Amino acid sequence: MIFWKKVYRVINKKGLWYPQQMTIGKPVDTEELAEELMYESTVSVPDVHAVIRALPRVMAKFMADSRPVHLDGLGSFHYTIQAHGTGVKKEEEVNIRQITDIRVRFIPERKKNGEQMTRALVGDLTYTEWKGKENKTPSNPGETGDEPTG
After folding, report:
1. Rounded distance, CA 93 to CA 112, Å?
2. Is the pTM of this model over 0.70?
3. What whole-number distance in Å separates Cα of residue 101 and Cα of residue 72?
4. Can you give the chain as a three-state secondary structure string?
5. pLDDT in tens, 42-70
6. Residue 75: helix, strand or coil by DSSP?
7. How far apart are the first and last CA of the chain?
8. Are residues 107 and 136 located together in one domain of the fold?
9. Residues 14 and 35 in one domain
10. In terms of domains, do 39 and 12 share one?
């Protein structure tokens, strides 16, 4: 379930209330992800862990050649470059020194779900207003309610 809370924001000199998504607890790390993937496949935790660890390096290699990387059921990744505030008047003046930043862009895969398109990772979600530790549903027995981080 997705937790959210009420926040007051002043935007364009207007103060209004908005829902804000929250993250709860520590991020899922590679080891925890590998353990879950082991249950979904016939591969051992060390094998899954090794593949997950190699994935960023392999993806970066392909993307460095200006090739997008598509993962079935997940989506596509590619680099984008930023050149904020460094435009030039003539085409022949454009050069690599204008690039100020590089980012990774992720585009979730779209699937047809009945009559409408849905994005990977955002299927059937439920939303619950955060009321504090008492409404956190632990995923592991014995887990304590973590404080929100978002």
Report:
1. 45
2. no
3. 28
4. CEEEEEEEEEECCEEEEEEEECCECCCCCHHHHHHHHHHHCCCCHHHHHHHHHHHHHHHHHHHCCCCCEEECCCEEEEEEEECCCCCCCCHHHCCHHHCCEEEEEEEECEEEECCEEEECCCCCCCEEECCCHHHCCCCCCCCCCCCECC
5. 999 999 999 999 999 999 999 999 999 99
6. strand
7. 15
8. no
9. no
10. no
Do 80 and 110 lie in a common domain? yes
Q: Residue 41 is encoded by which pair of tokens?
A: 């496949």
The residue range of the domain holding 56 is 27-67
Note the pLDDT of residue 121: 73
If asked whether residues 72 and 118 sit together in one domain, one would say: yes
Q: Which residue matches tokens 């899922």? A: 28
For the chain, the domain total comes to 3
